[in-house]
Structure formats: structure tokens, C-alpha cells
Amino acid sequence: MWYSGSRNNREESGGHEVQAQAQAKSILKTHFGYDTFKKGQEELIAGIMAGRDALGVMPTGAGKSICYQVPAAAMDGVTLVVSPLISLMKDQVDTLNQAGIPTTFINSTLSAQEVNARFRDIAAGRYKLVYVAPERLESDRFVRLLGELHIPFVAVDEAHCVSQWGHDFRPSYMSISRLLDVIRPRPVVAAFTATATDKVKEDIVRHLRMNDPVRVTTGYARDNLSFFVLKGVDKKAYLAEYVRNRAGDSGIVYASTRREVEECCSYLVKLGIRAGRYHAGLSDEERARSQELFLYDELKVMVATNAFGMGIDKSNVRYVIHYNIPKNVESYYQEAGRAGRDGQPGECILLYAPQDVMTQKFLIEQGESDEERKTIEYGNLHGMVEYSHTTECLQKYIVRYFGDPEGQACGRCSSCTDDREVADVTLDAQKIFSCVARMKQRFGITLTAKVLRGANDAKVRQFGFDRLPTYGAMSSRKEKDIVNLINVLVADGYMKLTDSQYPVLTLTAEAKTVLEGKAQVFQRVTPVKRAAASTTDAGDESLFEKLRQLRKSFAERDRVPPYTIFHDSTLRELCVMLPQSEDEMLSVKGVGEHKYRKYGQEFLQCIVEHTAG
């Protein structure tokens, strides 16, 4: 219970709880157009509105923003939202203002005069939420100004950035705790992230000085997404075929380097595909322009480095292709999770090539991190390599990585739909395990494969490995096939790799069981098939296109991204339900009273005319 004391106090607090719940649901319906909360939202919102700190770990698309936007709309004063990217602020501010909740931001795009003017407006009570970048909190003057405001609530988005164990540590996030010494009375603090291991969660609570927070982890599985890992494909040919087959869909292609982004984007443009590019080598203006065109659906495909994506809230991305392996599972899941934010089906495809792992190692070595941080980054990269080779359900691997051992097989990914023949590879596995043991578990995958292949290699001879009984034990196999099998055996838990630039193979208890002849090892033996075609059609396609064009005209008039008016999922539901009156239209998810007053009549008229025709 959140309230305690005498019977009268408990009755009074229970009344407040019911009242707060009713207020939260009213805000949800009026401003956001939904009748019910998603999983985890109501518990977090109830805790925040009762004055408790909160930690929400919810996958992309699960509605983290609602968890702080609804309480902010209900509270007196202004809520401060700490958000890492300027582009994300703009999207959130546009969306909230469209929903009738006055919101603004303060960041480096504003002049000193503009900042002062916004502060005057904030102090006058003209806004309910203010978004700021964490770097702004490093300014003593800015923090003192905050101390003059009534701030009952501080929300921290992308909270994993506060942890050095997280995949995107930002030192500026450490300044957030300073606010608690300045703002009086102490505000409620809520932190939200899509991906956090148990260690990262504890870091968040400690660094943000949270008091016994309400903790909600809704699970990491995304039931509307299908994951695929493809190896040995011609990447450019696959990319061209895939994008052409989905000419009407929005998609993101992630690449590791600026050069890869430039090459992929040029290739797609030459094929007549409306593609844009986004990386750190472009000017701020060009990046902003590319992002704007993508948000407004003028570009169908964005080719980008991982700098893109964390700062967008585009709901109708249907696919995300990773042209290269990313640096860790956390980054991959956040980037892949940009697909299907509207709850409609999405595909997440990783095109794996061994040389991409070397690129990531090079980027780690060239980075400015200290040795301790680099060791963490190498360990994180190994987790991504294991994902690329695992034979278990890909969705299950991801949720297990984040600490949920009870995850269920999705039935949709490239592992679950793999219909290759199962073969007994116990003998090959025993040869590999025996070789690793005879090499004293002190060397990596490549050298082990060379010994097993029987390679005439100087390093093999230097260590005397050409005299081992396992030298040439797999001479009939290609070296790359041996490397691949070793990677699979690592991913399946028979061996481990040390966290270092040159990882060393070590055996686990499972491998020793196989060596003793007490267990067998089975693997599939034919190429992975390509991803299945997307199945996103629902309702009347001609009506859906009419509604999209109507939405686009409003978006151009109001100079806002189309999805801030209505998500594609809302348009799809309109096509299925075909509302004929205001009441019927208000029953559609995503249509709130505020948006109906702004746009509803025209959309309703379009539907009525279409059905009459």
C-alpha cells in the first residue's frame, strides 16, 4: 500500500488514490485518445502521482513517455524532463502540443534571449513540461534558475546513460542528482529506459538518489516484431531486393561507418529509391533536413549510423536492417525497436559478416574510453556476436540477456522458422573442445580453427601446435566453416570468450559433459532462409491511402510530422471500423477529444464519403 495510518487516514488516502486514477484515465482519453493503459503504465503513474520515485524498464513502443506525461499534466507546476537528444525533444514537444498539453524545450539551439524568454513563460505557468538536455544541468546558472521554479516532478529519459555499465554512458547524466539539492521541496524522480541489465538498474537508482522507487519491468519481448540474422548473403543485392519489395513502407538501414552509410545511400538512390543519409560527418542543417524529410514521409528509407534513431518517435517504421553488426545487444535492440512502434508488424534484420566484428573492435580501440571501459565494451560486443550465431529463438536470447530466463520462443524469428535438417555434430564438437583443452584454453577462435584445419601457419608452428593430436583433425572442412561452428558452440553455451581485444576460448561444464560422451550436440546444416514478406495490410487500402493524404495535407498546413496527428495504426483502425459519427470515431484508439476537435470532422467526412461511394 502507498498510504498508511488510521482508518480515517486510510479511507481518505484511498479516496485520493481513486481520484488520481480517474484523473489519469481522463487525461489519457482526452489528450492521447486511449481508453486503457498499456501493461505497466498504470502502476508507474499511480506511484508517481502518490509521490513515489519510479523506475520503468519498458521496451521501445511500450509507452514509456505516457508514464511521465500523464502525471505531469495532472500536477501543479512544471515537470522537468531530462532527454539526451535535441531531435527527440522536438518530436516530443510537437506531439504533446498537438495533444493539447503545453510543452517547450530549452537546449543549445536557442539564443540566450530566447532561453530567458522561455524561463519567464515557464515561471508564469504557461507550460506543463519542459525538456532539457543533461549537458544543460552542468551550468550553475541554469540550475540556480531551476531552484526558483515550482518543479514537483523530474523525469529522466534514456536513464541507462547514467550507468558506466550501460551501452551509452554519458558523464553529463551524473549532474542530474545535483537538482535534488537545489529544488525544494524535493521533487518526485522517475527514470525510464528500454534496455537495462540488473547491474544498470541498480546504478540508475543509486546515481539518481531514488528513494525506494516503484519498479516496473514489463518484459523485453516485442510481440509484433520478427527478428532475422542472415549470413553469407550479398548485402547490396539483398538490400536492393528487400527495399524494392516494400516500396510503400518506411525503413531504417543502420551501418557502422560513415563510408558504409554513404555507399548504401548512393546505391539505393541510383536504384530510384527515396533514401536519405544521417551521420556525424554531415552538417547540423543537413542532418536536421534529412530527419525532417523522413519524419514527414518524404523519404522512405533512412541510411544512418547509430547516431540516428534514439532521437525520433516515428511510429510507422516497418523494418530496420542492420547492414553491419552493432557494438552490443542493448544498441541493437534499441535500434531494431524503432520498427513497429505503432504496434503493427515490423521486421528486424541483421546482415552478419565476420569482418564487421573487426570493424567494431577497431572502433573500440580508437575510442577515448579508459581500459576498464574498453573491457566492458569488448564483453558487450561478444554478446552481440553470440546473438548472431545462436540457434535458439532470437527474441528469447534477447530477453534472457536482459535478465529474464523465462522468455518464450517467439515462433517468428529466423531460428524459430528455420526448417533446415538437424544433424549430429557431436564428433566435430568433441574435436574442437579437445583442441581448446590441449591448447591450454589460452588462445582465440582463429588460431584454434587453423590448428584443426591443419594449416601450415608460422604461429601454429611457433607454439608447437602442429604436434598436437588435434592438428588437422578437421582438415576436410574449410577454415571459415570451423570458425562458424566454434561461434555457434560459444553462442550455445559450450564455450566462453574472455572480455578483451583478443578474446580467449574457454570450456564450460557443458563442453566437458560432451567430451565425456554424456551428451550430444546437434546443429542445423543448410543456409538460413531470407526473411518472410511483411504482412501489414488491414482494412480498405484505397481508404487508407485517402486518409494518409488527408493527414499529409494537415501536416503540411500545421508544419508537424504526420504521425503526430494520427499514427498509421489509428488510420488502419479507422479503415476497419469505418466510424459514421463523432461517438464512433472517438471510440477508435488514438483519437482523443482534443484531436477530434482539430481534425476529426474532416477525417469523418472522408470516411463517410468513401463508404457512400
List keywords for this structure.
613 residues, alpha/beta, Rossmann fold, Arc Repressor Mutant, subunit A, 6-stranded parallel beta sheet, 45% helix, disordered N terminus, zinc, DNA recombination, DEAD/DEAH_box_helicase_dom, EC 5.6.2.4
Write a structural description.
- With 613 residues, this protein is α/β, with parallel strands linked by helices.
- The chain has 4 domains: 17-217, P-loop containing nucleotide triphosphate hydrolases (Rossmann fold, 3-Layer(aba) Sandwich), CATH 3.40.50.300; 225-401, Rossmann fold (3-Layer(aba) Sandwich); 422-524, Orthogonal Bundle (Arc Repressor Mutant, subunit A), CATH 1.10.10; 541-612, HRDC domain (DNA polymerase, domain 1), CATH 1.10.150.80.
- 45% of the residues lie in helices and 12% in strands.
- The protein is built from 24 helices and 17 strands.
- The strands form 4 sheets. It has a 7-stranded parallel β-sheet with strand order 3-4-2-5-6-1-7, sandwiched between helices. A 6-stranded parallel β-sheet has the order 8-13-12-9-11-10, with helices on both faces. The chain has a two-stranded antiparallel ribbon with strand order 14-17.
- Strand 10, helix 11 and strand 11 (301-304) form a beta-alpha-beta unit.
- Mean pLDDT is 86; it is low at 1-11 and 527-538.
